[in-house]
Design goal:
It contains seven helices and ten strands. The strands form two sheets. Strands 6-7-8-3-9-10 form a six-stranded mixed beta sheet, with helices on both faces. Helix 3 crosses helix 4, helix 4 crosses helix 5 and helix 5 packs parallel to helix 6. It is globular, with a radius of gyration of 17 Å. Bound molecules: adenosine-5'-triphosphate. The site of adenosine-5'-triphosphate has 12 residues, from strand 2 and helix 1. GO terms for molecular function: ATP binding; ATP hydrolysis activity; transmembrane transporter activity. Keywords: ATP-binding, Nucleotide-binding. Belongs to the ABC transporter superfamily. This is Cell division ATP-binding protein FtsE.
Amino acid sequence: MQNVLYLKDASIYQGDNLVLSDINIEINKGEFVYLIGKTGTGKSSFMKTLYADLPLTKGEGSIVDFNLRTLKEKEIPFLRRKLGVVFQDFKLLTDRTINDNLMFVLKATGWKNKKEMSTRVEEVLNKVDMKTKGFKFPHELSGGEQQRVAIARALLNDPELILADEPTGNLDPQTSIEVMEVLQEINKNGNTILMATHDYALLLKYPSKTLKCDENQVFEVVQRKTTL
Ligand SMILES: Nc1ncnc2c1ncn2[C@@H]1O[C@H](COP(=O)(O)OP(=O)(O)OP(=O)(O)O)[C@@H](O)[C@H]1O
């Protein structure tokens, strides 16, 4: 499979409101793709459609081999297992340690063997340079460290596509760069990433394919300061 995502003549609605129309895009394996656009132009609605939080009711769409038009409620957990989703506000469980946060996800996604589970937790924490912090609680970590843990969590089941919705939105510029370095490293190791962001400084520092939401459309932009 070459593309991990395509949308053809797709429209995205919030209730009766048309948010985006006639979307024709494709994301191929191994790409790092930005999704930009002003507040309210539909980035979150777009991302939600991709992880099936919002149904696709018009056009065609396929993501990691799931048809977004015909997807059944009971298939959603299986789709989400093939996706890694990272949010602006980290969404770690505050009542347990980092290790237990990650073990919880493995259990919920069908892992049984304790030794294999601990090995996997260690592997993903290592990828985000957080191997020594597994015993800590989320509130004992900085925002950047919590986001790195959230990225580790997204990697647990070796996803075919990582969807990151404003992953640096709550972080200061220096910490944003640290998180971005982790995402770049993961991408270099073969993971495909779609990242919604407001942060033009990151786009300039790490140029890559860019999709823009504007006036109910999504289109690819050529990266030049003036077009952003
Ligand atoms: N649950 C909802 N019900 C109805 N309309 C909604 C809902 N969520 C968002 N919208 C509308 O859909 C449009 C797109 O919103 P969306 O959150 O996708 O934009 P965004 O580009 O992600 O903005 P932001 O950067 O502020 O998150 C907006 O006009 C918004 O008011």
